[in-house]
């Protein structure tokens, strides 16, 4: 077995709890050397920094990064996230955020009469630019006070994520839908559409369409069987991936990968969900999302068999109500749910 060197940032809240379980599951199927970094909102409160000045350089040599979640009450989100998560995504050119969902046995979708064939959506989120920019600022006073935030879309940035979406769709035999709001946002979004159309010409074998993101949100609930790969800007991809997670059964089962497809730096694997302060410390967070995320990491590292073994173990384990955490209507603990998955391996 190849030995993989993985940096782990458990982070905050349930991020710590579910990452511990993901590590146990991976250890059952692959040879991984874990190096843990305790960068979090707590370390910010202790040291004034989310990560050390050379944090990115410390991470760079690893084969991949497994991250729990960042952000916790007590530290403003824009400080914690722009101090840790977002710099990693950018510095390591993790320009694609892949967020797949599918129905799992025993997980009740709000669209309950749907079957697995009806619902397989993969949100491909632009992860390095767009609405998530630090261009802008505040000016003026009183009634004239205002905040400006410039969305930055580059041809290079849009083209590469759209191309990734088409490649994935071709490989998975799925259609592509591009989500924009070109009716309301008149500079950046028509630009995205134009680049999308240019790239689409290279993939005439892949069915593709352009959708207005608001109507697409409704369609994700009303007719998910008509969708496959959904490619969207940073902000729209963020929103649509929580929605697609909910359609499949909740944030507790939705994995994600921040990918540097050229592999010029490590990719980072973190579930769609956050630190869930409302349930943190109770031992009831669903570990499935982070375990599926770890499986995506193994697949990225070439451990395809181990990844598939984990996915199948999750499907077998969840078929038993005893393995389901409260978000899935069960009463399993985080640890108990992971134990059932390990037993099913
Ligand atoms: P959240 O995803 O943490 O939680 C939303 C809801 O989903 C909560 O009710 C929570 O209990 C539930 N939930 C989420 N994951 C679950 C799981 N595994 N099992 C069971 N229930 C689960 O979103 P939020 O509350 O808006 O954000 C909390 C903090 O996390 C904020 O600081 C936010 O900025 C941060 N955040 C971080 C990441 C990340 O680091 N990847 C992602 C999203 C949010
Ligand atoms: C996610 C999160 C982050 C994002 C936040 C915490 C900055 O919501 O990974 O989905 O919006 O990218
Ligand atoms: Mn999000």
UniProtKB/TrEMBL annotation:
Gene3D superfamilies: Isopropylmalate Dehydrogenase. Keywords: Manganese, Metal-binding, NAD, Oxidoreductase. It catalyses: (R)-malate + NAD(+) = pyruvate + CO2 + NADH. The keyword Transport does not apply. The keyword Nucleus does not apply. It comes from the Bacteria. Its cofactor is Mn(2+); Mg(2+). Residues 5-341 form the Isopropylmalate dehydrogenase-like domain. GO terms for molecular function: tartrate dehydrogenase activity. Its EC number is 1.1.1.83. It holds the Pfam family Iso_dh. NCBIfam families: TTC (TIGR02089). Belongs to the isocitrate and isopropylmalate dehydrogenases family. This is D-malate dehydrogenase (decarboxylating). It comes from Tenggerimyces flavus.
